[in-house]
Amino acid sequence: MTPAALRTELEKVLESSVRSLWGELIPDEFQAGVSGSDNLEFGDLSCQTAMKLARIVRDNPRSIAVKIVEIASDRFEGISAVKVDGPGFINFTLSDDYLASVAFRLAFGGLQPLLLDAGRGREALVEFVSSNPTGPLTVGHCRQAVLGETISSLLETVGWKVSREYYFNDAGRQMDLLGESLAVRYTSAQGDESAVPESGYHGNYILEWASGLRALKGTGLTWESDRDTFIGFAEEKAMEMIRSDLSLLGIEFDRYFAESELIPGAVTEAIERLSRITVDGKSLVYSDDDGSEKLWLRFTSLGRPKDRVIVRDNGTYTYRMPDIAYHIEKFSRNYDLMVDIFGADHLDTSRDVTTALEYLLGTEEVSKRLKVIIHQFVTLVRDGRKIKMSTRSGEFVTLRELIREAGSADVTKYLFLTRKAEAHMDFDLDLARKQSSENPVYYVQYAHARIAGILRTASEAGIVPPDEFSGELAELLNGKHERELMRLLESIPVEVAAAADAMEPHRITEILANLATGFHRFYQHVRVVDCDNMDISAARLMLCEACRRCISGLLSILGVNAPDKM
RNA sequence: GCCCCCGUAGCUCAGCAGGAUAGAGCGGCGGUUUCCUAAACCGUAGGCCACACGUUCGAGUCGUGUCGGGGGCACCA
Questions:
Q1: How far apart are CA A458 and CA A142, in angstroms?
Q2: In whole angstroms, what separates CA A285 from the centre of its chain?
Q3: A520: CB within 7 A of chain B nucleic strand
Q4: Exposed site from A111, A186, A351, A461, fewest CB < 10 Å?
Q5: Residues 6+ positions from A34 with CB-CB distance below 8 Å
Q6: pLDDT (tens digit per residue) in A461-496
Q7: Domain locations along chain A
Q8: What is the pLDDT of residues A359-370, one digit of tens each?
């Protein structure tokens, strides 16, 4: 039985007991929740349902709890003791046999087979980074890249089939500016910056592109007659740069989706669909009376704060419109779940897009299938001071520089994932560089390396973990420290599934830290390799292996190495 | 102007669908290595969970308001 199944089973037994006791008093939606207890004296699992039932069945919670336990107690599986405590908590103690069997399964099959198969057979599309090809990725993109990748692999771990997609704008004004910035650098022999348009791109990487372009095409190109060459070359170089930045984090996208694929067909169609919708007798799309091509979307009729321009005077689209078309396209691909990961600067836009989609596709459809995660920005801290960043001016810290300064991609990824997405984050470079106990990555990796060391020593001593589960194995592990560790291991699949469900990867770093602490404590109190007690050594070795596989499995969700030596 | 996030130990932050005595790391103080990695472990001090009101058997958690801090938003994307 998996930890998830045990809890579900327990809840079912409790629910059916409650219904058989109080029948029609109990509402249809009633559920008996079982959760972990944080205090050992209250057992391993706990149910608070008696308190919630007090008012419905007009009895005191304690006597309700006692009644439930009386009729249900012989139907609990994997439970060795049930007790009513305090005001009416029902507390369960997990049986030694069950705990040892979970550890055994972890040791031999790893974490994944024990996870709730929440995503089985379903497909998800995760869109992230989606930075325009105008230069190297920055610190902000780095946080998003790490979040998106980790959410993707977290979903995969619980059984989803995940596609990672990168949407980029290759058709807008920014690409013109980029091309022009390149043209200026290309034309002036020293790559004189003064001529670069003020709102253009000033980064030094454009100098390298310029000399690359001169090497390839000579010096005869001009911005006036070779616009497409400049823009095309810049885009190609920028995408190269971005892919290589992403590879530093071990990220590969399944698809790069270009905005130009949607223009004009899909966008025109989306505008038509929107203009057919009327709210309070007025079409959602309207134009000014001056005869220009400009079109507005009447967001105020949809409960949004402002109407927005969707087509400019010159016939080009503002950001929102292709994005709406892109989302319609994504919905048509029939994913069960679409996740958008955006920075805080996209909040307003993203809500507009979501609102428009709700009117086009139905509110329920959108809220069921689209999940938008907005993450707050990162501030870099170096020598105790915050660093200012801005992309267009060229004063920014790139993802590449960040990883180099932090010391490794592992540290960078892990530190980003110690905060929840929606919290502002100070990334402390000085802390990242410290190879000491202050740095949480090393704490976890050290636990893994320690276990690997034990396994090496054990194998030299000829001790191997048992290859099948038996009641004797559980008896060998009935010590206090063994039990505590098994209890911790047992809770991990449930917590990982919950983290995946909530799409909150920062919980994984929490779980890892707890697991590392649990193991270090065990290690301190219990000697594993002992040639005078081969049976007990083998059993304890199995526990070590279970820990090791959990740690490496969780680290691999984060894309972080699990070293065998440090 | 509109919107978002945060306010929990000296510092950086967890706290999973409201539950039993509020947690971790770092820093402080005091301990633990004839033994599988001391990058570890154990103990200890340190909290009106910003404030007020409300919802209820019960609030760090939910609601409203106040105060304080951070950030975002334009026919850029």
A1: 41
A2: 36
A3: yes
A4: A461
A5: A7, A10, A11, A14, A45, A46, A47, A92
A6: 999 999 999 999 999 998 999 999 999 999 999 999
A7: 3-94, 173-248, 264-316, 437-558
A8: 999 888 898 899
* Low pLDDT (below 70) residues in chain A: 116, 118, 189-194, 388-396, 435-437
ipTM: 0.93
CA Rg value for chain A? 29
Q: What is the CATH number of domain A3-94?
A: 3.30.1360.70
Q: Do the domains A437-558 and A3-94 match in fold?
A: no
Nearest to A513 by CA among A419, A443, A451: A443
**Whole-angstrom Cα distance, residue A12 to residue A7?**
9
A521 touches strand B (CB under 7 A): yes
Residues 241-260 on chain A lying near strand B, CB distance under 7 A: 259
Reading the block at residue A294, the tokens are: 């400009």
Q: How far in angstroms lies nucleotide B35's C1' from the CA of residue A532?
A: 14
Rounded distance, CA A255 to CA A205, Å?
25
Q: Which nucleotides of B are covered by protein (CB under 7 A)?
A: 2-6, 12-17, 19-21, 23-27, 35-42, 56-58, 69-77
Strand B atom within 7 Å of A232 CB: no
Q: Is the CB of A71 under 7 A from strand B?
A: no
Q: Determine the topology of domain A437-558 in CATH.
A: Isoleucyl-tRNA Synthetase; Domain 1 (1.10.730)
